[in-house]
Write a structure and sequence with these properties.
Blueprint: H1 15-19, H2 24-27, H3 29-32, E1 39-40, E2 51-52, H4 61-87, H5 90-93, H6 99-118, H7 147-168
Parallel strand pairs: 1-2
Helix pairs in contact: 4-7
C-alpha cells in the first residue's frame, strides 16, 4: 500500500535534493511520524531521526548485518512499485508530453493499486521487475545542508547505531 506519494516533478530532479525536501511528508513529518517511529530509506536520502538509511561503506560485521536486515525490510517498498508497474503496464510505458496527464494517470494507478491491495487482489506478476536504476548517490554530502539538517543527520546516525545495537548485538 502507498500511504503517501509525490508526483509531478521532472525525472531529472534528484529525490533527496528537491522532491523529498519539498514533499508533503517532509514538511509535515511531525504530524505523520510519532515518537520513536521511523522510515527505512535508501542511501539517496539524508539520514535523520525519522528516516534511517543503511551505512555507506560498511566498516564492520555489525554494520554489514544491519544493512542486510535493513535491505530485507525496505525491499517491501520496491515490491510495491513492482506490483503496481506489473498491474498497470502503462506506468512502464508512459511517454506522454503533457505532465497533467501523466500526473492523473499515476495518481489513479496509485489509488486503484491501494484499492486492489485492500481487497486482496493477488494478481500474479506477469513481468519481471525492471532493473530500475534509481539514481542512488551513496555519498553523505553535507554541502548545502543547513544547521538543522546537520543536527537531524547526527541524531539519525545515533538512532541508526542504537537500532543496529538492538537488532544485531542484543
Amino acid at each position: 500500500m502507498f500511504i503517501d506519494y509525490e508526483i509531478g516533478w521532472p525525472g531529472s530532479v534528484h529525490d533527496a535534493n528537491k522532491v523529498y525536501k519539498n514533499s508533503y511528508f517532509y514538511r509535515n513529518v511531525s504530524k505523520i511520524i510519532k515518537g520513536e517511529e521511523y522510515l527505512l530509506g535508501d542511501s539517496a536520502y539524508p539520514i535523520s531521526t525519522f528516516l534511517i538509511k543503511p551505512f555507506v561503506n560498511s566498516q564492520n560485521p555489525s554494520q554489514i548485518r544491519f544493512n542486510v536486515i535493513h535491505s530485507l525490510h525496505r525491499v517491501v517498498v520496491e515490491n510495491a512499485f513492482g506490483r503496481s508497474k506489473n498491474r498497470f503496464i502503462a506506468l512502464k510505458e508512459l511517454n506522454v508530453r503533457v505532465i497533467s496527464t501523466v500526473v492523473k494517470i499515476t495518481e489513479c494507478a496509485i489509488i486503484l493499486h491501494n484499492f486492489l491491495e485492500l481487497n486482496n487482489d493477488n494478481v500474479e506478476e506477469l513481468y519481471e521487475n525492471d532493473d530500475d536504476e534509481d539514481g542512488d548517490d551513496d555519498s553523505d554530502n553535507d554541502e548545502d545542508i543547513n544547521q538543522n539538517e546537520i543536527v537531524m543527520k547526527r541524531e539519525g546516525e545515533r538512532k541508526r547505531e542504537q537500532l543496529m545495537n538492538l537488532i544485531i548485538n542484543h
